[in-house]
C-alpha cells in the first residue's frame, strides 16, 4: 500500500530501480486487476487489504 502513495520516481529510488521499471510493474498490476486508472487500482487494492 505504501507504493500507492509514492511517485514512481520515489519508489524507484527506494528500490534502486528506474522509474520506468516501476511504471512497467504498476502497469502490469493495473492490467491484472482490470483497473482503468491509478485511482481505480488503488481502490481495488485497498479493498483487498485486511484492516486491523
Ordered list of secondary-structure elements with their pairings:
Layout: H1 2-5, H2 8-15, H3 19-32, H4 38-48
Helix pairs in contact: 2-3
Summarize this entry quickly.
The chain has helices at residues 2-5, 8-15, 19-32, 38-48.
Task: Name some characteristics of this structure.
about 50 residues, about 0% strand, mainly alpha, globular, about 70% helix, single chain
Question: How is this structure best described in words?
Answer:
With 52 residues, this protein is an all-alpha fold. The chain has helices spanning 2-5, 8-15, 19-32, 38-48. Helix 2 (8-15) crosses helix 3. It is globular.
Helix count from the secondary structure assignment: 4
Distance between the termini: 14 Å
Largest sheet: none
Order of helix and strand elements from N to C terminus? HHHH
Q: Proportion of β residues?
A: under 5%
Q: Give a count of the beta strands, DSSP E runs of length 2 or more.
A: 0
Structural class, by secondary structure, is mainly alpha
User: Which oligomeric form is depicted?
Assistant: single chain
The 3D shape can be described as: globular
Unreliable segments of 5+ consecutive residues: none
Rg, rounded, reads: 11 Å
- The average pLDDT score comes to 84
